[in-house]
Recover the amino acids of this structure.
């Protein structure tokens, strides 16, 4: 996790590194971020580090507790569920608009995204070396294609901005529930709807897909193994 460098990074760059490490679960809930360690790691004084930590706190990635330090926050499952609800509502409408108006080129762009996702998924036999970020990137690129084709880029950026609850829950789903085959199946079903120009069953499919993490993790959410990731359930 050490990223010592001779280059002095800006506050934004330091923030982005730490945010990414929290979102990707390299830093897990309950981990303590030491000012001294961060100063040494990034070769900066306490002032920029404190500024970065305050920004992380404002965005709910950490809590700053007097006499204890800066601690990575747990995932709020209720908020993650509300984010999923929002995405189902919005993406159902956008996907329907896409199917209704997409051009042959738009369709082939989605098909290419599906191909890349399937290609990445073939590397899942060894989860220890599986690139979760690459898989998520290809997953999101497929969804992004119908937002872009319908002129809803702004909505997509809002829905997929790094989030302390939803972003971490997605990764926990991949690691804990080994959800890759399920995700591929859903994306193939989306491709079939596009090819058939069929708008029936979109909401059901999107809901099943986007709530998949809750369904796959199921009772594990309440187990000792996963308790550390969540606020009290």
């Amino acid at each position: 996790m050490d990223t010592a460098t001779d280059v002095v990074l800006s506050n934004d760059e330091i923030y982005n590194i730490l945010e990414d490490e929290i979102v990707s679960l390299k830093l897990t809930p309950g981990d303590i971020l030491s000012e001294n360690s961060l100063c040494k790691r990034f070769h900066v004084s306490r002032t920029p580090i404190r500024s970065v930590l305050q920004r992380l706190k404002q965005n709910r990635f950490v809590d700053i507790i007097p006499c204890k330090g800066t601690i990575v926050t747990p995932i709020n499952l209720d908020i993650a569920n509300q984010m999923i609800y929002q995405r189902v509502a919005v993406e159902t409408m956008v996907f329907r608009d896409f199917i209704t108006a997409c051009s042959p080129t738009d369709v082939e762009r989605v098909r290419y995204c599906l191909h890349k996702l399937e290609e990445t998924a073939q590397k899942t036999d060894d989860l220890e070396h599986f690139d979760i970020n690459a898989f998520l990137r290809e997953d999101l690129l497929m969804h992004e294609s119908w937002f872009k084709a319908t002129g809803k880029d702004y909505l997509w950026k809002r829905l997929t901005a790094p989030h302390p609850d939803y972003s971490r829950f997605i990764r926990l789903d991949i690691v804990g529930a080994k959800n890759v085959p399920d995700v591929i199946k859903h994306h193939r079903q989306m491709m079939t709807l596009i090819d058939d120009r069929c708008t029936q069953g979109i909401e059901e499919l999107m809901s099943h897909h986007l709530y998949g993490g809750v369904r796959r993790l199921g009772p594990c959410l309440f187990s000792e193994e996963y308790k550390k990731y969540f606020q009290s359930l």
The chain is about 65% helix and 5% strand.
